[in-house]
Amino acid sequence: MKATIAQWRGLKGMSQTELAEAIGKTQKTISAWETGKTEPRPSDLDAIHKALRLRATDHILLQKDLT
Known about the structure:
Layout: H1 3-11, H2 16-23, H3 27-35, H4 42-52, H5 56-65
Helix pairs in contact: 2-3, 4-5
C-alpha cells in the first residue's frame, strides 16, 4: 500500500530527497509515508502529483492505493 509513492517516485527517477524538496517536506517525511509510519494528507497527495508530473489517472490510482 505505502510502496506506491516509492514506486511512482522510482519510475520518475526521483530520490526521496528530491521529492521532499519539490513539495516542501523533509526526506524523513517521505520515508515515513513510504514505510507506512504516517499517511500523507490530501494536499500532500496533490503536491506529489504535481512534483512527479503524474497524469490524472495516475493521481487517482495513487489516492486509491493510499486509502
